[in-house]
Amino acid sequence: MESQLSITVLAVLFLLRSGGINYGLRPALALAPCNFPAIFNFGDSNSDTGGLSAVYGQAAAPAGETYFGHPAGRYTDGRVIIDFIAHSLGLPFLSAYLDAVGSNFTHGANFATAGSTVRPQNTTIQQSGFSPISLNVQYNEFYQFRRRSQTTRAKGGVFEKLMPKEEDFSRALYTFDIGQNDLTAGYFLNMSTSEVRAYIPDVLIQFATIVKNIYHEGGRYFWIHNTGPVGCLPYVMERIPILTSQVDRAGCASPFNKVARDFNRGLKHVVDRLRRQLPLAAITYVDVYYVKYALISRPKRYGFTEPLRACCGHGGKYNYDKNFGCGSTIKRGGKDVLVGKSCEDPSKHVNWDGVHFTEAANKQIFDHIVGGLLSDNKNSLTMACHRA
Ligand SMILES: *[C@@H]1O[C@H](CO)[C@@H](O)[C@H](O)[C@H]1NC(C)=O
Ligand SMILES: *[C@@H]1O[C@H](CO)[C@@H](O)[C@H](O)[C@H]1NC(C)=O
Ligand SMILES: *[C@@H]1O[C@H](CO)[C@@H](O)[C@H](O)[C@H]1NC(C)=O
């Protein structure tokens, strides 16, 4: 209720600020909504709808309990932001490209997998937990999908009802939420903050290359999330020691958040440059960092308690222990107990499992970004096909 109100207030402020001067004169107002027929998503666990689960096993219960009633390939209790995006555009939830069973790609495909990075990692998933499906691999998948979906569709019958139309590739929305794992990867290899910062340009160059490749394959409309405040997540705070002087008022680890903001500043520059390089592209940069940090630093305002504690977890300051993660079992009094049983009301929590946001938090993040208030060009989701 209160957050709805604050969105409204912000929206009014925005209209007043821009409206009074030139908003009413901008032809943008007269433009039609986009009617995206499909979404192609690239990313990590923040937007995985079943990719990693298809290959490495389901995200374990109680994942999925709030919305699906069973594990559903998402690393949260319910829906992720891309689910809210798809729904609001009138499209079905995205099938994971890697999911060989029951998938329907008529309105797009999801190439994201949990643990994905922009840069290919030199460690295996067993060693580091990072997915081998880095952004370049996701692009290879897309490249194949673009072609093979059409030869398959041409067979007619049921195939026509499972694959997107050729023309939809240039009318689709291409969404991105990736980068967080590139930052943590260095820290988990014991790199210092300055060492992590030093490789950010390489991450951004590789990101830009993929956007350009998609453009050359006909993609035109891009919706790019920046990265969140990783220094507020238990799995980072538990694993990487910092000084108490480096903890901010919200209880988050400042050095990691600062690196995330450095990454975001670089990403914004990349987006500005891509706008000049790709004349037919409409690119929207979305500041999800801002809203994620707002939920964590002012939880009461948004209906949350204990924003730094995992809902589904076990032990320690943050109810998080990487050896006993959400959905694993621990022995208690000789009995096996499911980690997560104690998580009674996920809707009151920002953090689901020490790493990911709850469905309730994802919904609020979506509510804050859908109208364009956190878009650098003020594009709302439905207007994201227009060059602002
Ligand atoms: C992996 O190793 C290659 C070859 O040494 C190097 O160029 C690349 O930057 C490394 N990737 C990462 C993520 O460290
Ligand atoms: C795939 O989804 C679309 C849209 O929801 C639907 O029209 C189509 O019939 C589905 N395909 C199959 C084979 O069920
Ligand atoms: C990082 O440092 C910790 C603590 O010294 C050590 O246990 C761990 O093996 C190191 N990790 C790597 C990848 O070097």
UniProtKB/TrEMBL annotation:
Pfam families, A to Z: Lipase_GDSL
Secretion signal, residue range per the UniProt entry: 1-30
Alphabetical keyword list: Glycoprotein, Hydrolase, Signal
Molecular-function GO term, any one: hydrolase activity, acting on ester bonds
Protein's recorded name: Uncharacterized protein
Protein family (similarity comment): Belongs to the 'GDSL' lipolytic enzyme family.
